[in-house]
Amino acid sequence: MPIINSLLDTEFFMLTMAQIVLHMHPDVNVRYRFVSKNKKRIGHIQELNQEIDHLCTLRFKDDELEYLDSLGIFKKDFIEYLRLFQLNRKYIKAEIDNNRRLQIELQGPWISTILFTIPVITIITEIYSKYQSINEKGFHSVEDTLDKGEQRLAKKIEYLTTLLKTGQLSGFKFADMGTRYRYSHYWQGVVIEKLKKQLRSYLFVGTSNPY
């Protein structure tokens, strides 16, 4: 299954920024450039480009637009803009440069490129994480990685619960804003559900991912 399957699988603030760009800077052209400093993992460029190809086929679904409209912070013209919106493949190029580093360049109208940023970084992170989960026998050890993640998450929740009970977190709350840093979409969902269930609204107030 592709890594990104909805244009809502992003950070919410990117949508509010896109609305501002549409209304105030619709004619501005921009150039983004990402260069990885990690030369050890320079492979998988074909997989990365395939994921970007898929990303550029996605459109906002009717129920997604209805959800955004129901929030009351997006203007009707922006919702209708999103109804027609599709990321354009010609605005993005991913390759390995002469220094054996992953390089991604985005160039085009700001309003047409702004929604690339979070999904592309998320794709890079997830591909990297997947190939970090290869054991000494050369097999993907995703289950082992997730098991370790569960253990670490349980310890962190226990630690926060202890601090809460002893009155050391008065007035403190936090939210998930880790979409572009996640191990996988599945794991982000696991973390959010466990935090919701075990910390409720006492500490955990939700996620910035509208998907």
Please supply descriptive tags for the structure shown above.
nicotinate phosphoribosyltransferase; alpha+beta; 5 strands; 13% strand; 211 residues
What report would you give on this structure?
The chain has a 3-stranded antiparallel β-sheet. Strands 4-5 form a two-stranded parallel sheet. 50% of the residues lie in helices and 13% in strands. It has 2 domains: 12-132, nicotinate phosphoribosyltransferase (Alpha-Beta Barrel), CATH 3.20.140.10; 142-206, no CATH class. The chain contains 8 helices and 5 strands; from the N terminus they run H-E-H-H-H-E-E-H-H-H-E-H-E. Helix 3 packs antiparallel against helix 4. The model has no long low-confidence stretch (mean pLDDT 92). The longest helix is centred in the last third of the chain and has 24 residues, at 142-165. Strand 2 (92-96) and strand 3 (102-109) form a beta hairpin. The protein has 211 residues and is an alpha+beta fold.
